[in-house]
Amino acid sequence: MAAMGQEGEDVDHYEVLRLPSGEEGAALSVEQIEKAYRTQSRLRHPDKRPDDPNATADFQSLASSYKFLRDESLRRQFDARLRGRREAAARAAATGVKRRKAVSDLEERERAFAAGGGPAVDPVELARREDKRKAADVKRELDEFFAAKKSGVSGSASTPAHGDKKGGTPENGPKTDKGKILKVSWEGGADYYTAAKLDEIFKQFGTVEDIVIKTRKSKSKGSAIIVMASKEAAQTALKNHSVYNVFPVPLIVASVQESGGPPARSTQTPEPRTSNIDGTGFSDLEASVFRKLQEAQKRKKSG
């Protein structure tokens, strides 16, 4: 270790005597220093090192350091200088750590900026913004969804579950209460459930006003929209999950909340594909709405 010398030189007198330096050296007694000097004098005497050209200089250095440390005033000053050197080294090391961390943080922000095309944002803040954006999208698309249903924009006839009733709400009729609508999906055969079969299942909870089977390109997944006669009937259907698990192909049932929020229960995200609807004339907007609803619910659960 580099340290202060006899008269300010870079010599650590403790190390010359093979003693611990720093705080340990400062705590050594005069007797311990004398003992170390005697031991080193025997070992490092020039007579014992006739082939070492540096033996004499080394022995003189040993004697000089011993004399230096025997002087209480010089030793106190020397210990203070060593302490100052140690503290300066510690500050420099701490500063180096902080500087390296600052550089690392700066590089991380630059990478995030380059990857995202903008300044890095806290993940929690990003998630909050995304949820807010999706909630706004869901509300807007639900409004469009029911407006299209009311005006019959899709123009397709329904295949109602009851009698000869046509799909959609009459042009001048009341808007369908979202609390009455259930989204049903299943995996294991897209054609497994028909409107009649779903009607048979859900009429035990109350009157079913309409059923829409949504056809897909997928042969394994199917989904449908079920409009109950009342919100109470829809809630009863939602609470009886055990009923849907007794079938060879279980049903997954979710609701559209009054607030336009996420479904009450959802375990799958519909495929984002264009589809044709056999039923009450719901447009492809329905698929987009429910996809975003279920994505928002999954984000809420994972957060």
From TrEMBL:
This is J domain-containing protein. It holds the Pfam family DnaJ. Residues 12-82 form the J domain. Gene3D superfamilies: 3.30.70.330, DnaJ domain. Residues 37-57, 152-180, 258-283 are annotated as: Disordered. InterPro entries: DnaJ_domain, J_dom_sf, Nucleotide-bd_a/b_plait_sf, RBD_domain_sf, RRM_dom. One of its GO terms (molecular function) is RNA binding. PROSITE patterns: DNAJ_2. CDD domains: DnaJ. Residues 265-278 have a biased composition (Polar residues). Residues 162-180 have a biased composition (Basic and acidic residues). GO terms for cellular component: endoplasmic reticulum.
